[in-house]
Write a structure and sequence with these properties.
The chain contains three helices and three strands. The radius of gyration is 13 Å and the shape is globular. Helix 1 packs across helix 2. The protein has 79 residues and is an alpha/beta fold. It has one domain: Glycogen Phosphorylase B (Rossmann fold), CATH 3.40.50.2000.
């Protein structure tokens, strides 16, 4: 597999999923250390992953609030 320039991990489910995502982040960073790593989380997951040293960009997607529905998804995609 070629070395990707950037990688997006999407985790917008439960808080426990965000905790488990930390292992995935470490594995991805080990496999592709030069890739820019983006992670999408729910507002609950933000507290778990905020400031994680292996994540380049943390995006919060509030699918039950401000980002609800198709227009919310479109706004998130534009960010």
């Amino acid at each position: 597999m070629e070395n990707p320039e950037s990688i997006l991990i999407i985790d917008t489910a439960w808080l426990g999923d965000a905790v488990l995502t930390t292992s995935l982040v470490a594995s991805v960073r080990t496999l592709w250390p030069a890739a820019k790593l983006h992670v999408v989380v729910s507002p609950r997951g933000q507290a778990v992953l905020q400031g994680h040293p292996m994540i380049d960009n943390l995006w919060v997607f509030d699918k039950h609030g401000a980002d609800r529905g198709v227009l919310g998804l479109k706004r998130m995609a534009s960010r």
